[in-house]
Design a protein that fits this description.
Order of helices and strands of chain B: EEEEEEEEEEE
Shape of chain B: globular
Strand order of the largest sheet of chain A: 1-9-8-3-4
Number of strands of chain A: 9
Distance between the termini of chain B: 36 Å
Radius of gyration of chain A: 14 Å
Structural class of chain A: mainly beta
Number of helices of chain B: 0
Oligomer: heterodimer
Radius of gyration of chain B: 14 Å
Largest sheet of chain A: 5 strands, mixed
Shape of chain A: globular
Helix content of chain A: under 10%
Strand content of chain A: over 45%
Order of helices and strands of chain A: EEEEEEEEE
Distance between the termini of chain A: 37 Å
Number of strands of chain B: 11
Largest sheet of chain B: 7 strands, mixed
Strand content of chain B: over 45%
Chain lengths: ~110, ~120
């Protein structure tokens, strides 16, 4: 799997949009960008994934640059409950062997009042 | 999203005993499940990949005789920590791979099991 680079920490005021960047300059053509988050002492929670088009669901939006070398996860209206470590992971899908998720150190997002 | 459960959520045991952790996919079938370990203030580290009906594949450095994995059905995988020692104390998390439906090959994680070995 390609490696990703994320800032170690970010702060965001409650109610504002949180924009979490991720660099994945060595991503391959068949690799998707996945985002997970981990709230303290819980298992990771799936947020969203995409290949090259921007994606939106009830939790967040994912913006992928045209060259696919970077992406941004957007939480449109951050709340205190969004405080967590956010992981950006690239992996291929539907490969013959199980597609492993390799977790880096992620971005620790602190949402404040 | 799909739901994955783990049991127990927390376990304390004496050194030398064995502990079994269960991972279940509740609303989908998972031919592949994964086991991770997470030490305090560190990221998740993959321990092994569990495929239904076959032997697990262990990551380098993980002792397969110490961490026994069984994936007997499409909804259940178990991790047994044999002869546990204090250094095995950690947060163990499983995930299940959902290949069907709208999730299109996404892994969903259980809530984790906190193991403390005294």
């Amino acid at each position: 799997d390609a490696k990703t680079t994320q800032p170690p920490s970010m702060d965001c005021a409650e109610g504002r949009a949180a924009n979490l960047p991720c660099n994945h300059s060595t991503i391959s053509g068949n690799e998707y960008v996945y985002w997970y988050r981990q709230i303290h002492s819980q298992g990771p929670q799936y947020i969203i994934h995409g290949l090259k088009n921007n994606e939106t669901n009830e939790m967040a939006s994912l913006i992928i640059t045209e060259d696919r070398k970077s992406s941004t996860l957007i939480l449109p209206h951050a709340t205190l409950r969004d405080t967590a470590v956010y992981y950006c992971i690239v992996r291929a899908r539907y490969t013959g062997t199980a597609s492993k998720l390799t977790f880096g150190t992620g971005t620790r997002l602190q949402v404040t009042l | 999203g799909a739901v994955v459960s783990q049991h127990p959520s927390r376990v304390i045991c004496k050194s030398g005993t064995s502990v079994k952790i269960e991972c279940r996919s509740l609303d989908f079938q998972a031919t592949t499940m994964f086991w991770y370990r997470q030490f305090p203030k560190q990221s998740l580290m993959l321990m092994a990949t569990s495929n239904e009906g076959s032997k697990a594949t262990y990551e380098q450095g993980v002792e397969k005789d110490k961490f026994l994995i069984n994936h007997a059905s499409l909804t259940l995988s178990t991790l047994t920590v044999t002869s546990a020692h204090p250094e095995d104390s950690s947060f163990y998390i499983c995930s299940a791979r959902d290949l069907g439906g709208r999730s299109t090959d996404t892994q969903y994680f259980g809530p984790g099991t906190r193991l403390t070995v005294l």
